[in-house]
Amino acid sequence: MIEASISAVPGLIVSFVILAVLVAVPTALVAKARKKPWPLRTALAACLAGIFAVTLLPGDAGLESWQCDTGMPTHVFTSASSLLNIALFAPGAVLAVLLFRRPVTVAAAFGALSGAVELAQSVGHLGRSCSVTDLAANATGAVLGSAAGAVWLYRRRQSPAEPVRDLVWGVSLAAVAVLAVGGVFQSRIDSVDVVAMDDRMRDLAESAAQADEWIATAAKGVFGSGTEMRGTATKKDGSRLKITAETNRGTISGTWPQKTLESARSSNARGDEGSLSEKEVAAAAERFARTWFPRNVAGSDRRIRSIGDGPTRAYTVVYRRYTDKVMMPVRLDLTITTTGRVIGFSARTVDDPALPRVTIDEAKAKTLAEDATGLPADSTSLLAQQVKGEWRPVWWVGSGKQDIAIDAATGERIAGEG
């Protein structure tokens, strides 16, 4: 709180001095007029002025209104900020105990004051941050200050005034403060765990740096030596990062920390005048795929077809995996030239899902589709697909004008697909 206040509140020291004078001088004058000892009262007034100056003067930092930071760092009572917060409340509590000789009541009163301060910071448009950590540190300062005051009274052989009444009043005040402040926080204040947010941001920054290094290495492996990074873009996608890199030779993207490549596109998409045969191109594609996509290749069928003709033709090499004749969601498509240069690829790397048994054969799927559309079916494919978050075996039946998706386990048409 104090560290943040110094940077967030312009002119804090000047404001404190002015406020202390405005409060302490009248306090001293009133005490003298009533023929009461004035030094303790004046010092206590100055301490309270310091508390209000540090905690309630408008600033330019903090959470939104009606929010409070409920994160508790592991070093809650040992950090510099917490120690300063303890020091903010302890002196006033010491002076109040020496003045009123009621240590329990004073500790409860300063603890309640801390709760009221945090509540004001939360509900007011002060540009200040409500924090449970500050509340704990301030209350600790109040207890330590009251204890120090009680020890001072004991050493001066001055017993606390009416200790039983002090205990009753202190406990009652503490209970009322906890119920009142806690009730407002529970019912009206939104909890924000800034500690967890900071940890996530720090982890995200570290992950982004590691992802940059990984994608740079992958780019050089895909596009070859001499590849130079021009920039990266990172986007959070659930628990992972999707990273895209621009290089002097093309674009490549993947996910971190899974270290799975998703796509690449060479800036030179024209075919090369190479001498590799179709068989040799397939072998080059296999070596590349097994290096960068071992999970996609394992157990998959490979198909190859040429793109164009003549000396600059290229080839598309496709990997698909089938389980019980159902095409799994894993994918790998490579485009490679007759020199063995990879022009680009797209990949989907996922584990094979567990699917229910297929009970609808191709003929039955066609019949169901024709009944639904009134059109003859001319194409079918059976693949694993997510339906409402669940992997299902799905027949896709096309008529040339309309595609129908049918659950291959139940025969039900999948609404909204097509």
Question: What descriptive keywords fit this protein?
Answer:
about 425 residues, alpha+beta, eight-stranded antiparallel sheet, three-stranded antiparallel sheet, 11 helices, about 50% helix, elongated
Structure description:
- It is a single chain.
- This protein has 418 residues and is α+β, with helices and mostly antiparallel strands.
- Helix content is 48%, strand content 23%.
- Strands 3-4-5-6-10-9-8-7 form an eight-stranded antiparallel β-sheet, with helices on one face. A three-stranded antiparallel β-sheet has the order 11-12-13. A two-stranded parallel ribbon has the order 1-2.
- A hairpin with a 2-residue loop joins strand 8 and strand 9 (326-337).
- It is elongated and about 110 Å long.
- The mean pLDDT is 88.
Largest sheet: 8 strands, antiparallel
Mean of pLDDT: 88
Order of neighbouring strands in the sheet with most strands: 3-4-5-6-10-9-8-7
Q: What are the low-pLDDT stretches, counting only 5+ consecutive residues below 50? A: none
Shape: elongated
